[in-house]
Amino acid sequence: MKLKWLKHRPNSKAGVSWGVPWKKGQLKKEDNITLIAEDRKKIPIQSWPMAYWPDGSVKWTGHSAVFQPNGKRYELKVGENQHPINPLRVIDSENQIIVDTEEIQWTINKQGSHFIEKIVSGSSVLGEKGRLMSIQEVRDETSEIKSIQQIPFETKITHVEIEQDGPLRCVIKIEGEHVSSSKNHKKLWLPFHLRIYFYAQSPSIRMVHTFFYDGDPQIDFIKGLGMEFSLPLSGEPWNRHCRFAGDEGIYSEPAQILLTRRHRHADGLYEKQIKGEVIDLSQQKHQNLLEHVKQNAIWNDFKLTQDSAEHYRIVKRTKNGYSWIESTHGSRAKGMMYTGGEKGGIGIGVKNFWQKFPSTLEITGLNHAATKVKVWFWSPDCEAMDLRHYSEETHVVSAYEGFDEMRATPYGIANTSEVFLQCYRAIPSDEELVEKVEEWQAPILLVCEPEYYYETKALGVWSLPDTSHPVKAQLEKELDKAICFYKREIDQRRWYGFWNYGDVMHTYDPIRHQWRYDLGGFAWQNTELVPNMWLWISFLRSGREDIFKMAEAMTRHTSEVDVYHFGEYAGLGSRHNVVHWGCGCKEARISMAGLHKYYYFLTTDERTRDLLIEVKDADFALANLDPMREFYPDDQYKTHVRVGPDWAAFCSNWLSEWERTGNIDYRNKIIKGIETFKQLPLRLLSGPTFGYDPKTNELYHIGDGIAGGYHMIIAFGGPQVWMELAEVLEDKEWEEMLAEFGEFYELSQEEKLERSNGKLHNKLFNNRMLAADIVAYAAAKKKSPSIAAKAWNLLLNKEVNQVMLPMEENEIHVWRKLTEVPTITTNTTSQWCLNTMIALELIGDYLPSNLKIHDHDDMKQLT
């Protein structure tokens, strides 16, 4: 297969990991894989299986390699691998792990408070004592005088393991929690996972940090959350520098400047100093300058704080106890700082730094024997993290908040950040730092061509773009408009911030010219109607980096913030709400594996793999929280599931576990449900609600046409999961059941009643556009032009599809200039786009060439 860079290639030698799919039967477990560059030379590669087809052949493989900056395209194929000349060396002892990349030796502690003990190059210590830290804010608001106490916490490591130990890449996972160092405030809180990625011959590491909230939001406010390293820098204060990546280039400051009142130019030395060059003042001709320079203030502490998506400031001070002086302001900092002396230093970068504000990069003691550099994921210079709910009551009737139960808890949610650390044994130029920060902020990833992803059939049913047909060309234009609108809307509406970045809003309010951010269930989307799938399939069929970045951010957010990783609701997620964890509906559809596995398979990200494992048995969570408890409180079955979204989400989770591990117990869970449907008179149309036993996976039929809603079955990824299952199971009756469901959705009232013996009718089948893909599936399986016409009607008839075609943006002038689509909702947009991309694959051949997608008369003629 052919590989190319997603967009950016490394600017210097860099380790990269990526995943690729294989057609069924193409790759055996025992096969070797080789990587070939454009010049036909083999590049050493480390490979491992990530998923399997039912016949045992490999479905997805993960790969790592170290690349030079000059390569553009590569080829991956079965063949003898090229082994690295200088592989990684990993020494695992009782208390420490030493990773030797040849460039750098990293010592990892297995206990204590410092996860990195030392960073060594040859005989030089470049850094040491890497630790995580947090600050709790304790408030006393019982009197008129408000008092606030800030309590520092540090790392307590509880478990360390080598997850991958290969010749080119090593992954170490560190688990622990934060412990208070205060004698009067003993407490453990905020569990964390930290993965560190090492590559052979690399002077840098990548760290993926996840923290979990386990506090009481009424009293446990997080003032700061970050990590710290100690650097033993060398050199005089005028040769010690900090540099920050600003909006575009590099802002540089020395600890002590050479500029003085009497020496304004200093023979060009000042200019060289600001560029980062080492300045030697030992010569006799510089003695007068040296005397004046030594009288200049020594600036030891520096901070760059991004306090909003539109503003950062850089400040400095001489030392603790003295005022901070403002250096400069800017808009969107790139999230990198370099700290160094005469013999080099260390650069640290935070991915999505300004997007996930409030964040800070801090240097303390620049002229001290041990300089400390700090990365704050949540800046202590801003308001403390407040995870309380927005209201003391639920707003079910007026604001679509689900159940009348107050379950608005953040206990068990998480947030993941990525940090890069680069060792420099010589002083880097500003150009080098700019190249590095661009590399850190962009996905450096090898990908396949869309045609290859499509041919493997490894991620369900979807189409490649096709503009050869006039109607298809119109549809492709509308699909592109939708992506471009949300890409711009994210920035226009400033959908950024530590807890928000990656999510989008649910429904627009054209009267206020604002999304319904404050109206219960109409605010944040939280995976409602699977926008994740829309974005990921849009990427697969286009290969566009901008779409990948949108999908990546949404995956990071929705898989962590919207999902519970422990506690009462472990394995479930929160439905859409004003705050991400605010809705009383805690359901499996929000956390299902099918929303997030794209990212894992394309990038090999181990944190996402954790999340897929977390939900493999999410159905057990329903034993304590029945999703249909409002409708069947006194039923003989303690737990109920709807065919969709509940059982469909479980199918997604089980398919993920089965394909990743080969564990047939999870295949059998799927088959047991399918076999149950096969025995029922209405098959998949039965229910839509069943009694359920998570211990046995037994579905208990309690009637047809009962509460649950057939549109719920197909609105949350059910058809996409089941079509993918059909590709895997090769069960003809299952395929017939899917086609039967799709055909039935668009039958007339009379036909529905006749086929169901009077049990099912039109009122049970609402929001018909949501069924377009499953209706298209029926048309394709039955080779029926009439069913295909019904499917296209659902997508193109404005009286049915709930979207305005073509999409038109209006420019308005209110409190500021905005562009808006007054009727937009993310529900209908994501579902229309997703269903259209599937329908183009299944029934694209049934489109008449003279159809105009905005012409209602044409739609009448079509149907």
UniProtKB/TrEMBL annotation:
What region holds the PcRGLX/YetA-like N-terminal RIFT barrel domain?
A: 1-76
Highest taxon above the source species: Bacteria
Q: Where is the PcRGLX/YetA-like central beta-sandwich domain?
A: 90-436
Q: Note the Pfam families from the entry.
A: PcRGLX_1st (PF19501), PcRGLX_2nd (PF21345), PcRGLX_3rd (PF21346)
Which part of the chain is the PcRGLX/YetA-like C-terminal alpha/alpha toroid domain?
444-847
Q: What is this protein called?
A: Tat pathway signal sequence domain protein
Q: Which species does the entry assign this protein to?
A: Metabacillus niabensis
